[in-house]
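Translate structure to sequence.
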């Protein structure tokens, strides 16, 4: 249940760029930001946010059948004007 919640968080507002099979049989999905999805504050839900920093992070997603799945996701750090 908790893993499923995490998946939702990482997938929200993102598109799959590429899917790659790695040497150990796991899958690596590279995600990019969906340009039509506006960034919003995770605390108050306001979209009055300032993009603070951009980086990429590799996270483990739910297994896909017997495969381990990794996501390479863009992470945005936001500053909120409201809170
Ligand atoms: Zn806020």
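Result:
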């Amino acid at each position: 249940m908790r893993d499923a919640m995490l998946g939702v968080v990482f997938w929200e507002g993102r598109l799959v760029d590429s899917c790659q099979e790695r040497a150990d049989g796991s899958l690596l999905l590279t995600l990019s930001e969906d340009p039509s999805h506006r960034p919003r504050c995770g605390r108050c839900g306001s979209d009055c946010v300032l993009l603070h920093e951009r980086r990429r992070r590799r996270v483990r997603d739910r297994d896909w059948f017997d495969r381990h799945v990794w996501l390479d996701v863009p992470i945005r750090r936001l500053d909120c004007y409201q809170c």
